[in-house]
Amino acid sequence: MVKIKIKNLFSEKKEIYANEGESLLEVLQRNGIFIPALCGGNKRCGKCLIKIIEGKTSFQDTEEKRVLSNYSDDFRLACNIFLKEDLTIEIPQNFIISEKSFQEKDSSLTEKREYGFAVDLGTTTVSIRLVNLSSGRILSGINSLNPQISFGQDIVSRISKAYKNKEGLKRLQSVILSLLNNSFLMLMNRENITQKELKKIAIAGNTVMTYLLLGKEVDSLAVYPFDCKEKIFQILNSKEIGFSESFDASVYIFPIIGSFVGGDISAGFYATDILKNKKENILFIDIGTNGEIAIITPEKSFASSTAAGPAFEGVNISCGSLAIPGAIMSCKWNGESFDIETIDKVMPPSGICGTGIFEFISEALKAKLIETNGEMKEKEIRIKENITFSIQDVREFQLGLAALKTGISLLLKKLKISFKELDRVIISGSFGSNLKIESLITTGLLPAFCKEKIIYAGNTSLQGAIKSLIKENSKNEIEDLIKDVKHFPLSTDENFQEIFIEAINFKSPE
Amino acid sequence: MEILKEISEKVEKGKAQDVKLLVTQSLEQGINPQDVLNQGLVKGMEKIGEKFKNNEVFIPEVLIAARAMKQGMEILKPHLAKSNFKAKGKICIGTVKGDLHDIGKNIVCMMFEGAGFEVVDLGIDVSKEKFIESAKNEKPDILGMSALLTTTMIQMKEIIDELNRTSLPKRPIVLIGGAPITQSYADEIKADGYAPDAASAVDVAKRLLKIA
């Protein structure tokens, strides 16, 4: 038996016990201590980094040394530590993807010392902004991985962890609450804000993330007809949800439109004001693991969700990666090979993330390395160094894209309008915003004549959450806005299969 | 025979019109309908299945080939009946309750049909009761179950348990498949067979039924 002491911990447990020879990563995970291990503990992603304060461990091997070449010797990968004796470790807060300070205070501005947090609660990423309620100034923020990732990368795998399993549901809830609590405290500390000055929290998440945060049963979302009973939430006190006892803030949760079309989309509608527009036909697409699509016309509005699959997040792709430093995010064919760019310019590339995959497919289609039906001359294409793209990967991508294309086609059909009659196409979500117009067209997601109609709106879920904090009476306004948006279930449409099969080819719809 | 080889090639390419014409011609030439089936239509589907397994072709190509095979089959069927043809076996197949995924299961259906099996498609969102009922009434050699969600695949175990409790003159072998399914899951719930793709499903079935 060995004892592991953890300093600066991001959960209540400070000491845990394990057997000799066990992997530290597994022991931490078993004890509910979140540590991102995106590569599944294979010494590749470098995200399970920890710092050894005291104690001896197994030695570094060449693979680990390669990943940690920029770190001093006391930094190690938890997945490559096999326990020998008692250890004291520190877990760096490496779940934080980016940390930003935002607008400085304008001295002429008078601000009340009242603050709020806006949260975009995504399946993969959680974005938090600290906002002054009187001026709307954003003081500071964090983008972090959702710690529930260690329970599975997509929505269905999270649901299945909580399905008919109260313990599992509780664990999923507690890791996300713990991330939010810690992030709030960190940001307040940095900006010298007292707990009394924190007045409001606004949270926009997809249906599953919302239910898991509130500790609500997700069983009905696990099977057809994928229903959720509670769509509108009362404003609660932070303590009622399980936030830190020291907070006394009101919490606003964005309403769910229906099934998997959740609060992140109602926040997106609120942020972009598209439901107030009574003149245009608008296609709204939030591209991600779960793709949400809405079409707003002056008469009617429908919204749907489609399981595009995790290929867009780099999951289920042989050299795929989440959007983390070292991942290929941009790719250009120069006639002989690919010129690449990685996140934070970290080399050699560790994998390819969603935006990189879109650009790779688009470039390979133009260079005829991949045919319109997905066929390839070789079994795989080398992108750079040991990063390759296999025919199996192309197929995964085709399925994801086809799901999205099918959703768009069926909604257009439902509203009896054509692509030509669309006035605007809004691409929302931080992932979508990084996709180039050219790759959206070349891969066949949108027809070429939509080029001029495309608008990138950014993370509209977060924008909506921020807006709700600073505007009066936002709850009523949002509920009033979304009440006319109908949820349209795609999977039951009789034309689904036929359209889906047609959408598998990289051809743009008409 | 040249014409049978041609049928197989046209099936593979999904040329329905050509397949129909060639099947008619070969029957007129007095070729045994069973040979038209096995060396023509079935061969073509086997080849496309193999390519599908290796990712060389994808869902649309398989479905087009299957359509060509089916149209050839329509012409062939009455002649097969006359020649005392017996199907290789019978399969009842469906997607489990709570799950609406259709395409993968449909491809499996077509592969079985293309391999000379009689196929009863139970559809999607199929309840445990319906599976058991089909095992009773249809007396199939194989009961096939498909699930695409980790939340719905757990029903496969319930269906297998229920099947084992039910007294049947002939208990069908149980084949399972779908994206979240693995061999170890199949072992865990005591399914007789698992296949990672539609073409292999036919291979597994033939092996378990001990037919060539």
Which structural class best describes the helix and strand composition of chain A? alpha/beta
Tell me roughly what share of residues is in helical segments of chain A.
25-40%
Query: How many E strands of chain B?
Result: 5
Strand order of the largest sheet of chain A: 6-9-8-7-10-12-11
User: Helical residue percent of chain B?
Assistant: 55-70%
Globular, elongated, flat, extended or rod-shaped: what is the shape of chain A?
globular
Given as residue ranges, the uncertain stretches of chain A (5+ residues, pLDDT < 50) are none
Strand order of the largest sheet of chain B: 2-1-3-4-5
Strand content of chain B: 5-15%
- Helix tally of chain B equals 9
Please describe the biggest sheet of chain B, giving its number of strands, its sense, and whether it closes into a barrel: 5 strands, parallel
Topology:
The complex is a heterodimer of chains A (510) and B (212).
Chain A: E1 2-7, E2 15-18, H1 24-30, E3 49-54, H2 62-67, E4 75-77, E5 87-90, E6 96-101, E7 115-121, E8 125-132, E9 138-145, H3 155-162, H4 166-190, E10 198-205, H5 207-213, E11 236-237, H6 238-241, E12 250-253, H7 263-272, E13 282-286, E14 290-296, E15 301-307, E16 327-333, E17 338-342, E18 351-352, H8 354-366, E19 380-384, E20 387-390, H9 391-414, E21 424-428, H10 430-433, H11 437-442, E22 454-458, H12 460-470, H13 474-482, E23 485-487, H14 496-503
Parallel strand pairs in A: 1-5, 7-10, 10-12, 13-21, 15-23, 16-18, 21-22
Antiparallel strand pairs in A: 1-2, 3-4, 3-5, 6-9, 7-8, 8-9, 11-12, 13-14, 14-15, 16-17, 19-20
Chain B: H1 2-13, H2 16-28, H3 33-53, H4 59-82, E1 90-96, H5 103-114, E2 118-126, H6 128-137, E3 142-146, H7 155-165, E4 173-177, H8 183-188, E5 193-194, H9 198-209
Parallel strand pairs in B: 1-2, 1-3, 3-4, 4-5
Helix pairs in contact in B: 1-2, 1-3, 1-4, 2-4, 3-4, 4-5, 5-9, 6-7
